[in-house]
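Consider the following assembly input.
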Amino acid sequence: MYRIGELAKLCEVKTDTLRFYEKHGLLSPLMRTESGYRMYTEEDAERLRFILRAKAVGFTLAEIAELLSIDLDKSNWACADVKGMVDIKLAQVSAKIAELNHFQVSLKRLSDACCGGPESAEHCSILEALESNSAEVKRENHTHQHQNNPNKASCKRKG
Amino acid sequence: MYRIGELAKLCEVKTDTLRFYEKHGLLSPLMRTESGYRMYTEEDAERLRFILRAKAVGFTLAEIAELLSIDLDKSNWACADVKGMVDIKLAQVSAKIAELNHFQVSLKRLSDACCGGPESAEHCSILEALESNSAEVKRENHTHQHQNNPNKASCKRKG
DNA sequence: CTTGACCTTAGATTTAACTCTAAGGTTTAT
DNA sequence: ATAAACCTTAGAGTTAAATCTAAGGTCAAG
């Protein structure tokens, strides 16, 4: 039997989080001491680990609540139901990755076009790309290069 | 000159969004009609497009506000400053992608281990994986296969 | 002159998952 | 017996970016 702080430490979460999970119906200790302290059993700890594992693969708490209720009533559910949830989540995750890949490609293109030097941003390719409609990002061509920093890669490049 | 609804339609955002951007200092039309209607200039429209382009590469509104203020005062900023912001965002995006890739791999593994059929979830590999500590996901081996659905791929696989 | 589409404001609500605060009761170690 | 470390509750705050609501003013057409 664990007190809330003990279970929290054991599973590396905050006590706040355990109370939050209780308030949202994910994990409610069956027992309380006379003075009202929550007492968690090993079974409660297992349930918490289930929650944390499900979180670790990307499920939201609402989805985890559903998974938990299925888990407690397995015989009335089919593999198709469970796999369905996983596959929906997989599709969501893949969609988010696709969006972020888009961001990543665009950001990389912006970053690569900019010299990143001490030159004034007056001709910064990044700002120009954000100002203009074009999908393409133009390389900088600083007409007034700084005399200092001779070791820095020049922003003048062919193209 | 555009009224708020016109600019909103032009740029495919809601009027609420434009008022929200104004409240947060991103886009404030210089003019109002006598009756108080916002009147946006072409310059305002360009500024909105800047905002939308920056959003499209993943910047938050707070970051976009910073980019806009740099853009209005370019000569006092260096390329390094601008590129720095892009590179920080790139790192954040890459980190998020890495996390989601982790989710994706785990979910795929869970999905692949489950037959997804009408079999009872009592021996569902996905639930078992969430219940147990092991990183590995075991394939299902339904001892009581359903007699119907003979066309469905069997959950019995070697391994 | 009235209907409908548009505009104004301030402020509340949404989503997700906590995180924190205040005010107080309990347990344990010294 | 008292201080430290723990626990309780209800409820507010956080983050981001809108989105919605209520109550009302403006404008063009018929």
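Chain A touches chain B through 56 residues (CB under 8 Å). Ask yourself how this observation constrains the way the partners meet.
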